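Budget justification note: compute hours in this period were largely spent on complex prediction jobs such as the one shown. Inputs:
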Amino acid sequence: MIVAQRKPFAEIRDMLGERSRVLVAGCGTCVAVCLAGGEKEATLLASQLMLAADLQKRDFLASAATVERQCDREFLQLLRDRVAQADAIVSLACGAGIQFLAEMYPDVPVFPGVDTSFIGVAEDAGHWTERCRSCNQCWLGITGGICPVTMCAKGLLNGPCSGTVHGKCEVDQDRDCAWTAIYERLERQSRLDALEAAAPLMKHDRCTRPARVIHPAYKKRFSIG
Amino acid sequence: MADSMCERVRSGSFEVVGRLDPPRNGDLSRLTALAASWKGKVGSALITDNASARLGVSALLTAERLGREGIEPILTVSCRDSNRIALGSTVLGAAAASVRTLLCVSGDHPTFGDHQDAKPVYDIDSVQLIAMVRAMEQGRDAAGNELQPLPGFCLAAAACASADPLAPQLGKARKKVRAGVDFFVTLPVFEISQLEAFLNGLDDLPIKVIAGVLLPRYEEVACYKDGSIPGTFIPHDLVEQWRTLNPEAFRTASADHTKRLVADLRSRGKVAGVCVSAPGREDEILEIL
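Corresponding output:
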């Protein structure tokens, strides 16, 4: 899932400036799970904005609407009538959803209500950690299912740096050293031979931005190849 | 002395390397004067590449300058600040400047340095850098494009001999050997025992090891904990002992300790030399040799 964090309220309020009809658009998928931008958070932010405007005795109206996913046009269309009444939108979706919403409604300013953090997993209630940098060239087959691109602070592909500290990371000793973990996992699986060969250079041309994926079955439809 | 430090290391003579950090200003006069004072006592000067992620004069330029002044440089090439194009450019520059020995490292993370919000590059790692230089000697750049073959370099790599756990470190060291490294320079050790498992782990390979030693600063020891100096593990009893001393007594005690360590390393014959680091205490390096 994509993990995001709500921006500080003051930052959102300052971005909105003097705009007075605000739609807070929540997203019901990843950001709802990580408690940053789902229905509850959208409703809460709209109320916060209303209270802040009340204190300033401003003519101001904020309302919340949450769709299943903001990364899908069919759901974004459901917001059309609400957007028509707004002079600004605060989207609580991830960066992808925010952009897709802004693309669908290009006449209305869209502001981010969250900072998108990473692709990760739920460790526990309220605790998420990163797992994937979407490099488009998965190494997990030779690294014991632990991603060196993501889990090593330096993204090293051939083993630990010299700075590893008793199995922890040079950069932050609250984090495990990815390469110590990779080594231990492969040793446990009797697969240390997977580390014998030097890893090839990262193919950055496979992850030029913005990336694009077309399923082979749809290539004809999109006139590719 | 033989022609180059690599030949000296290969021939089995004990090499003394002194580390020099290029200054954080545009004036190399102090550094070159210091290196000149080492002549005859220090075989080669290890020029760091923005050591500890701190800004300094270009390592290549510094190495070239020292070479012109008759001091053999070992040029550190770090993957932290440059992508493969810039690293290739540095290697070409080293060839053009007749810098023959390179220390290929990944580099301390920027969070240790003076530009903590800088982008860490690490486009390639130290193993890949070694392989890239060897390929350039054969007339291929990192992308496989042809280039005029470069003269052969002597390639060094770093390793943390006192790493815990050691096995992953040894595994990577072996990759570096397979990639074509000529010798290792260890991160600093403070007791010979910190080297033993590492040396034993590589004893089936024909690879030389130069032991790193460090003359630490008083402040570094005062706030030392494992991990505070990347890759450097000061035995806890030594830290405790040094912390009971005032700055002047510490200065003497740490210099005496390092002097004894260098003498022991020299006499026991298990390593090919020492690389003495003394950031902020470079003037004391001659005293401990």
